[in-house]
Amino acid sequence: MDIIVPVKQVPDMERVKFDTEAGRIDRSSASGEINPFDLNALETAVQLKEKLGGTVTTISMGPPQAETSVRDSLARGADRGILLVGKEFAGADTWATSYALAAAIQKLGKWNIIICGEKTVDGDTGQVGPEIAEWLDIPHVAYVSEIRDASESGITVVCEMEADHYGIESPLPTLITVTKDINVPRLPSFADKMKARKAEIEQWGASDLSEFADPTNLGLKGSPTRLNKVVIPSEEGRKGEVFRGSPEDATKKIADALQALGVLGSAK
């Protein structure tokens, strides 16, 4: 069983800052880490490898520093790590990102299942996984919360769509996107981290994908989406008000305040 897991390095969303003028995330303002949902995808792949044998390959697209996340994936059980890096990939939206990743997967040639995280915490679109499947013309199942059976010929999963659960069988090759409920990602041991630090990370540029990708479809120039404005909503905390006076006066003030908020309805 040969499994591919696309992973993305995302900034620490609790510390990252936004450049509202440029309309982008200031990724230099916070350290990078593997997208949390991709950790669930990676754990799913490693568990399948442990059960059925085979290999797990992770592919990421990003700046040179994204290599740290690829190494982290090796420490967590992946066998091979590939980073798509170069200015040609910069500024890609989900369409161009999925196109580049699909081209890299085609270059790899041999695979049975692609496992993606449900979404990324810095984009929250959930589009890249299904788009990869469309580029490769293979079936896909989204929001998988359980794998009930898997073999060299097919996979049976449970996917969650709002309040409903569906059991779905898919032939291979296929792509699935998994939710955080599917597992608890393992922590890498110190020995695994040290081994990953010495491992070779393959770096592919746009020229390495020339057989499978049109360069005009890569990066910013290949992205049909344009971001016009970034707005950061203000965070308002809970507000309190103290009503003073006699019990009768305070009670009336509270009733008037609740009525003004529409809690008590209009006075008759």
Describe this structure in words.
The chain is an alpha/beta fold and about 270 residues long. The chain has 2 domains: about 1-220, Rossmann fold (3-Layer(aba) Sandwich), CATH 3.40.50.620; about 235-268. About 25% of the residues lie in helices and about 25% in strands. It is built from 6 helices and 13 strands. The protein has helices at about 35-50, 65-75, 95-110, 130-135, 190-200, 245-260, and strands spanning about 1-5, 10, 15-20, 25, 30-35, 55-60, 80-85, 115, 140-150, 155-160, 165-170, 175-180, 200-205. The strands form 3 sheets. It has a 9-stranded mixed sheet with strand order 11-10-9-12-8-1-6-7-13, with helices on both faces. Strand 10 (about 155-160) and strand 11 (about 165-170) form a beta hairpin. Helix 2 packs across helix 5 and helix 3 (about 95-110) packs across helix 4 (about 130-135). The protein is globular and about 80 Å long. The N and C termini lie far apart (about 70 Å). The model has no long low-confidence stretch (mean pLDDT about 90).
List the helices and strands and how they pair.
Elements (H helix, E strand, L loop, with lengths): L1 E5 L2 E3 L5 E3 L4 E3 L5 E3 L1 H17 L2 E7 L5 H9 L4 E5 L9 H15 L4 E5 L10 H9 L3 E11 L3 E8 L2 E8 L2 E5 L11 H9 L3 E3 L42 H14 L8
Parallel strand pairs: 1-6, 1-8, 6-7, 7-13, 8-12, 9-12
Antiparallel strand pairs: 2-5, 3-4, 9-10, 10-11
Helix pairs in contact: 2-5, 3-4
Helix content: 25-40%
User: What characteristic shape results from the CA principal axes?
Assistant: globular
Determine the N-to-C terminus distance: 72 Å
Helix/strand order? EEEEEHEHEHEHEEEEHEH
CATH class type of the largest domain: Alpha Beta
Rounded to an integer in angstroms, the radius of gyration calculated over CA atoms is 24 Å
**CATH homology superfamily of the largest domain:** HUPs
Q: Any idea of the CATH topology of the largest domain?
A: Rossmann fold
The strands making up the biggest β-sheet line up spatially as 11-10-9-12-8-1-6-7-13
